[in-house]
# Entry
Amino acid sequence: MYLAENGDQLRVEAAIDLFQERIEKQKEKGKGASKLLFSQSMLEYLQKIVRAQAEGRPLAMISIFFPPEILLSMGLTVFAFEQYTIQLLAFGRGFDYIERGEAFGFSKEACSAHKACVGMAANGIFPTPDILLYTGQLVCDSSAMMAENISYIYQCPTHWLNFPITDDDEAVKHLKRGLEETILFVEKQTGLKYHEAKLRELMERDKLIQDYYVRTQQMRRTIPCTMGGKEAFANFGVRMVNEGLPITLEFMKAQYQESLARLERHQGTVPEERHRVIICGTYPFWYMGLFDWMAREFGAVVVADVFSAMTAHHTEEVGDTSDPLECLARKTLRIYPQVRVMGKPSYIWAREVGQMAREYQCDASIFFASFTCKQTCGFWRVMTDTVREIAGLPSAIVTIDACDPSIASENQIKDQIRHYFQLLEGQR
# Structure
């Protein structure tokens, strides 16, 4: 049972306390360096937001796919409100704000995370932004509708960065022009100036971050697997808000070194690896402990997924940074986690998922069909048919909601997955 909370428990200051407590517990339990660095990275990110507000410096509220480097290079403090909301819900906090978003008038059929975002914005949970920066048009219609509601609530200057649906050279030029327009908007609204050398410095660090990231993800194809899905997902939030910063490089290096050490010891993430799983669809963020349960009950390890492994699969390097804006545009379209995936027609990356399932020697495939995530529910048949065609795997279609436990409970989700693994093991 999740209890309603007052707003003070959900504001950034409370999240800072939460991460400080988490770091102390991780130290007491002797957790690895990557877990500590993840928590430290998120703590420093939240502390910057509070300091900016206290000192009267401008704050930009950004949508989930907005490339942060361009803003960080200008010294602008960023607040990724969708990521923050999902993280709160993953911690088991703020579920009643889903209903508050609906009460504000946001569609009941929209993404539950977006409903919670609207509810929190309308009830004064988020820090008040000076400018709003969104990305369009990705396949998520709910995100675009949410952006309109957020803009209405805050009544502050808003800018859209348009993403083309292709990633060829012309698309890179198009996005570069969009980044140039973003710079002009930020300079006009905040008085901050763009520094090419600073962006180049961030992009040079991105090279190292991406290199560690790819090598770490590709190690997951080994038997036994060196890192499970929950641990791999940690890089998603860090890179969304702190891409190009020194602490993100430290985190990615630590994650790589820990995986390499397990590889050299021939040590997997579970004592006995019985099933190698590929995941598609949207995770149940409010119940990430599901993956620990799968490991305990069935020796099942998530070795490949669209959030992490796929965004490191067959990608190019960050490349030449002499023109840092063009480099950022190229990286965003061809490398950046999720933009590379979600911006393409589903049949293209369905084949890549199928190829990954085969290359990573998966014997199980789970598709999380999130009730309010229309774009993922819309391509489940394309995805599961392609995985069967290329890798020969039957898929479990598991009904969930990414952020709302009232749609499908913990036990209902477990029952669906338990039945799938029992069928697999019966066939053996």
